[in-house]
Input
Amino acid sequence: MSFKPPILITGCARSGTSLTAGIIHMSGAWGGKMSGPTKYNQKGMFENATIRQDLVKPYLRKISCDPMGQHPLPTDEHLQRISSSDGVSWREEVLRVMRRQGLKPDRDWFYKGAKMCLTWRLWDYAFPNAKWVIVRRDKDDIAKSCLRTGFMRAFDDVDGWRGWVDEHERRFAEMQMSGLWYMEVWPEKIINQDLTEIKDVIEGLGLKYNEANIKAFIAPSLWRRGRPK
Output
């Protein structure tokens, strides 16, 4: 059975990946059984809990990296070891989860995961025709948000988190240079009511843009307290 290529949404934790995924979800893409609201993501996480818990975290543990995606992170050597056959196996595992949850061949679907960019080559081998959405945010704003977030525990100062963001940005550059299909989103623009970029992204993904729904969904007060993921 053939399925549509996925929309893969990634970026640093605390950069607005949940906000972005929520908008993509309301625009017509399906994410399966997703984690609901939490203290730090009061609008919802929009991340498939089974893929995160049963596939992504065990994979990171297997390569001796932090399953939370904080420290230690996958290295260049880890990425270089990933093969196309690894990608085939990963594709089968991801699709097995999504099929069980109700994925149909004609359905637009997505997976959102901040940790996905850390092993992006695995996902690229698995889904070479995927449409990627890379979520961006100012480095210092991410670092300060990490310090305010209970589950972000790897570093206790801004400099530590800045270095962590640098590692993510290095992966973003690799992804962009590799030639995969991607669009960038800066959620700060959405929060400031500039919807031009997200409109382009939604339409570029082949989804249905509804400005009224998006405006009703965004919550500037949560973003400015550093709570959105």
